[in-house]
Specification:
The complex is a heterodimer of chains A (246) and B (311). Chain A is an alpha/beta fold. Chain A has one domain: HUPs (Rossmann fold), CATH 3.40.50. Chain A contains 6 helices and 15 strands. Chain A has a 9-stranded mixed beta sheet, with helices on both faces. In chain A, a hairpin with a 2-residue loop joins β10 and β11. The mean pLDDT of chain B is 94. With 311 residues, chain B is of the alpha/beta class. Chain B has 2 domains: 163 residues, Rossmann fold, CATH 3.40.50; 123 residues, Rossmann fold. Helices cover 27% and strands 26% of the residues of chain B. Classes of the chains: A alpha/beta (246), B alpha/beta (311). Bound molecules: flavin-adenine dinucleotide and adenosine monophosphate (AMP).
């Protein structure tokens, strides 16, 4: 079983969000990068569990610059066997997906896992794009994944419910809460991660399909109106007449 | 210009479908809807009121298989010469729109919250709702996946024609074993009113007062992450950075501190009401209306007030 797990960096969830260069760039000043939680907690940990149960290999892949190697080592510390970095600074999900699909095609993976979405761009795009480029089934927002030989059983969220499905390999799965539990790397893992293989691969040439032109911050909320806890009729009246939401 | 809208009609026509059709109409040009499954023609025809000129339905596709849906939508886009495809940014769109983007070589804008502006960019939520980005598409065709509750549906027209369509969807690689549907609940991402509670409620046995208020309002229920993690509430109710992101008209939060990761999932709400015993709770900074008080007293009182108001 060869599993490829797509790892993206994401700003630590408590990071202050600000922009520079005339609001055209994310201000990285003082920002700590972590492994995108969906990729780490669900995709990577489930891949490791499958490997531990039935053998195989877990490779992590990132499309990113040398600066992202700290995040890659963190994912290696949790237990991935080796890592690949496609040496580029991706600006677009399509660009990222084509790079990963190209690597996956050339190296014959049984299963490609992504997170549900990145917590910075929230696009939920990369997984489906990889699947289309590989002409493979895509099970999106899966909350459970079991491999039985050459097929998989999965649970996924659909409009207003949950669907249990079966599909063959190879396939692409985007992973969400429920699939696995977060693992905290131990000292041995952290030490081992330093010497695990990290291969740097040149990107293939692709044109971005979309670009972020600028960013804005939401308007600051006006002061909160305090209501006497014994006077809920007043709150209802305000929600009806002032806020007009009920 | 020709705009194609994909609608998931497997559980009927939802408000989000009417929003997507209204959005397509506002983009200008002709609007064709493509859908699949068993929804009856009379119901589908109602999309005409929101601006659809015609609805195409491929009744041979009855699953959520994203490969089949992608082929079907691509065939429809070709047949009507669509240069823009609109989705509602729901679970189907998250699976299908990225595939379609690669297949049609059409740049994908996911989670649009507005119509394209004069400079051709479209506004989306980024950083889990903490900021907005303006996205430009560099390809001649584009796909826009519209975040639910971003625009109001406008019914100005009348019913439209519904035609059977063969989308050449091909065979499926995904076999559905079972589906589990929660009965009678309002799906959280579509709910206009949401009542949510956190660890301040102390235990799952106390959720009756939350459900009572939700029922009186006709609202959906939600919760903070620790509450779902300890199993007090089902996982699909967990809102926030690592849960569902919602933007209802009204979000009432009781016994939730308002951690930044929680706010990330709810700060798109139009109006926020916070009920908390601690006047220093960070949530008050993000609230429009605040009640410093005990949820065990305030929630039942609010429920009574809502019932009285509704008569
Ligand atoms: C990477 C990461 C991702 C995360 N993602 C999410 C996420 O998606 N969603 C999320 O919610 N959290 C998330 N969290 C957790 C988040 O940081 C908070 O820990 C969590 O939101 C706190 O939940 P809470 O407000 O229910 O509980 P608490 O922080 O314990 O707050 C309880 C509140 O209830 C009040 N209270 C107590 N008794 C009463 C009473 N009788 N009446 C009224 N008020 C009362 C207290 O004053 C307090 O403010 C994430 C954390 C991390 C690190
Ligand atoms: N630069 C990247 N390198 C590797 N994987 C990525 C990258 N960006 C996104 N992904 C993967 O694609 C998933 C969805 O990302 P997104 O489409 O940006 O929401 C993430 O959870 C990651 O698993």
């Amino acid at each position: 079983m060869k599993i490829l797990v797509c790892i993206s960096k994401a700003p630590d969830t408590t990071s202050k969000i600000a922009f520079t260069e005339g609001n055209t760039k994310f201000d990285e000043n003082g920002v700590q990068y972590i492994v995108n939680p969906y990729d780490e907690w669900y995709a990577l940990v489930r891949a490791l569990e499958i490997k531990e149960a039935q053998g195989g290999n877990v490779t992590i892949i990132t499309v990113g610059t040398a600066a992202d190697e700290a995040v890659i080592r963190k994912a290696l510390a949790i237990g991935a066997d080796d890592a690949v970095r496609i040496d580029a600074d991706p600006k677009d999900a399509y660009y990222t997906a084509v790079q990963i699909a190209e690597y996956a095609k050339n190296n014959q993976f049984d299963l490609v896992l992504t997170g549900k979405e990145t917590i910075n761009y929230n696009g939920s795009q990369v997984g489906g794009m990889i699947a289309e480029a590989l002409d493979a089934p895509f099970i999106s927002v899966a909350t459970k994944l079991d491999v039985n030989g050459s097929t998989m059983t999965l649970e996924r969220e659909i409009a207003g419910g949950i669907e249990v499905v079966e599909t063959g390999l190879p396939a692409v799965v985007s992973c969400a809460k429920g699939m696995a539990e977060q693992r905290i790397p131990n000292m041995r893992g952290i030490m081992a991660a330093r010497t695990k293989p990290l291969q740097v691969v040149a990107p293939v040439s692709v044109e971005d399909m979309t670009s972020f032109v600028s960013y804005t911050m939401p308007n600051a909320k006006s002061a909160c109106k305090m209501i006497d806890p014994s006077n809920m009729d007043e709150l209802v009246e305000l929600l009806h007449n002032e806020a007009k939401v009920i | 210009m020709s705009v194609l809208v994909y609608i998931n009609s497997s559980t009927g026509i939802h408000k989000s479908a009417n929003e997507a059709v209204t959005y397509a109409k506002k983009l200008g040009g002709s609007v064709t809807v493509i859908t699949n499954g068993g929804c009856d023609a009379a119901t589908l025809a109602s999309l005409g009121k929101y601006g659809a000129d015609k609805v195409l339905v491929d009744r041979s596709v009855n699953s959520n298989d994203d490969q089949q849906l992608t082929r079907m939508i691509a065939t429809a886009a070709d047949s009507v010469g669509a240069t823009t495809v609109v989705f509602s940014h729901d679970l189907t769109a998250k699976a299908v729109a990225p595939r379609l983007s690669v297949r049609m070589k059409a740049g994908l804008i996911s989670g649009a919250i507005d119509l394209p502006s004069g400079d051709g960019t479209t506004k989306v939520n980024v950083f889990s709702g903490k900021a907005f980005g303006a996205v430009k598409v560099n390809t001649s065709k584009k796909i826009i996946s519209l975040l639910p509750n971003s625009i109001q549906p406008e019914a100005t027209g009348s019913d439209c024609a519904v035609e059977d369509f063969n989308g050449n969807a091909g065979s499926t690689n995904v076999k559905v074993i079972t589906t589990k549907k929660p009965e009678g609940e309002i799906p959280l991402p579509e709910a206009e009113l949401v009542v949510s509670a956190g660890r301040g409620l102390k235990g799952p046995e106390n959720w009756g007062i939350v459900e009572d208020l939700a029922k009186a309002l006709g609202a959906a229920t939600a919760c903070s992450r620790p509450v779902a993690d300890i199993g007090w509430r089902p996982h699909h109710e967990h809102v926030g950075q690592t849960g569902v992101a919602i933007r209802p008209n009204l979000y009432i939060a009781a016994g939730i501190s308002g951690a930044i990761q929680h706010l990330a999932g709810v700060n798109g709400s139009k109006v926020i009401v916070v009920i908390n015993t601690d006047p220093e709770a960070p949530f008050f900074k993000a609230a429009d209306y605040g009640v410093v008080g005990d949820a065990f007293e305030v929630l039942p009182r609010l429920t009574e007030a809502v019932k009285k108001f509704k008569g």
